[in-house]
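Priority: low. Protein: Ribulose-phosphate 3-epimerase. Input follows.
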Amino acid sequence: MAIIAPSILSADFGYLNQDIDLINNSEAGWFHIDIMDGVFVPNISFGFPILEAVNKKAQKIKDTHLMIVNPDRYIETFHKLGTNYLTVHYEACTHLHRTIQAIKLTGMKAGVALNPHTNIHLLEDVITDLDLVLIMSVNPGFGGQKFIENTYKKIANTKDLILQKESKALIQVDGGINLDNAKKLTEVGADVLVAGSTVFNAKDPMQMIHDLKQKAES
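Result:
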């Protein structure tokens, strides 16, 4: 079963409460929350007050994607703010195994994200410790980018590694996901599809979430 995770980054912050209610009442399984620091990626998103507001109203799994340097500093803070899955970037962690263990010690699920140029085999030694692998299908930092076609092969390679190592990690894909590629992504092994502008720029976002899920599971 495919999980649709609408990205709050693409919501209308003037109507954030309404957009959170929309996700709560939709067929989406998760809330996807992007945290950017303007250093690791050339963009700044929202900080802890917004995350706190989302946590108060969100009734589904909160999946937080950290696009920041030194993520270890904030692990406990994100735990206190109600995060269920905390994902850090491979490229931002000098001591990745230690970071993963620190996340899991709080009771959160641990994820690692890979930029488009980063090879999945670099996770070979930690894949059994992970609950989630996030494959970036665009370069991180901004919504609305074009999907990178090599992503299909990368997902298939990730699935092979997970099966080979008997890991229980889910595969998440983020960037450029729409009705044209949702089915192919799940066919090659994706479990969780993050959709931002595709959902929130739609005329009927709730219907779009339904359509994405139908496509992904067809």
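The longest helix spans residues 151-165. Residues 21 and 81 are 19 Å apart (CA to CA).
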